[in-house]
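Encode chain A's predicted structure.
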Amino acid sequence: MQITIQELQNQWGIARSTVYKHIKAGRLTRLANGKIDVSEIVRVYGEPSKNTGRDKKTSAVESHDNT
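Encoded structure for chain A:
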């Protein structure tokens, strides 16, 4: 499975600039179609956390509302 850098950013919570820096350094491989294979992302960053990207903001608001 391949995903875009935007999808990587949303699911893993990694800044786009960091992703491009890792691609330029050779740490992460970008395919000719501009996407990145998920196995490559997991190799570099590990599995996505449940509280990353957009979910992190939602969780913080929910936690704040409960106090």
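Confidence is low (pLDDT under 50) at residues 55-64.
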